[in-house]
Amino acid sequence: MGADSQDHGWKVDPRRELHASIRPFSIGLLKEAQTTSADMVELSGKRIDKKLVPRAVALINAIAYALAPDDLIFSTRGGWTEFTRADAAVRFEITSPRKRVQKHHPHGYTSRDYLFTGRMEFEIIGSRGIRNKWGDRDDQKLEADLVLIIRSFRRAFAYDEERSATQKGCSFKLNEITVNTFLACLKRGPNGKESGWKSCPRLQTGSAAFTKCSIRSVCCLVH
Question: Could you tell me where the beta strands, DSSP code E, fall in the chain?
Fold first, then answer.
């Protein structure tokens, strides 16, 4: 997947200027953490210790800079935190574990409460077969796994894009498709619907060639 963090300069730096794609989101989250009277804020539907928000923002910022050369852009569409490229998206969550504690009150009364442990966890959602969860440990902070997180994002996108191309009937990476050439490639019956399992002819459009594929599949553009 490439060289390590020393070669790329990947690191979490709280002083680094916020990447343009995360700036509005980060400023709002930091302001909420500073002004709320609660001990937590919500991040992508999950409760996170407000004391960890600056760390979370610095981590997302580092990932955003690292993935930007791959055209992977941070987004919060639909209320999720994710990185996107074209129609592909890989979601992630940052959470704060909590532990159950007992509180002792006068007259022998006890109650239970759940307190944040002060640790932070990061999870890539839905990345099948790819390591997708990291967290603070006794001897090491989550930020030390930045290289692994970035590589896992890249693998997750490669997997999703390959799977998408395969589902469209292609054994190679889908680079581009246009509606007009796709429709021209389809053989349609009198009622305008697909007329069976006939193959579409090879077409030439500029420097791009269409490979044969079932008319129930997408005609994939090979460069």
Answer: 40-43, 46-49, 73-75, 81-85, 88-95, 98-104, 110-116, 121-124, 133-135, 204-205, 208-210, 221-222
> Does residue 163 register a pLDDT over 80?
no
Q: How does DSSP classify residue 9?
A: T
Write the CA distances from 19 to 2, 14, 65, 67, 70, integer angstroms: 22, 12, 7, 11, 15
Residue 175 pLDDT class (50, 70, 90 cuts): very low
Nearest 5°: CA angle at 112, between 111 and 115? 135
CA–CA separation, 123 vs 145, rounded Å?
Answer: 12
> What is the rounded distance in angstroms from the CA atom of residue 29 to the CA atom of residue 60?
12
Question: Beta strands 88-95 and 81-85: pairing type?
Answer: antiparallel
State the pLDDT at residue 166: 62
Say if CB 180 and CB 208 are below 8 A apart: no
Q: How confident is the model at residue 201 (pLDDT cuts 50, 70, 90)?
A: very low
Would the pTM of this model clear 0.85, i.e. be above it?
no
Q: Which of 148, 155, 164 is nearest to 130 (CA)?
A: 155
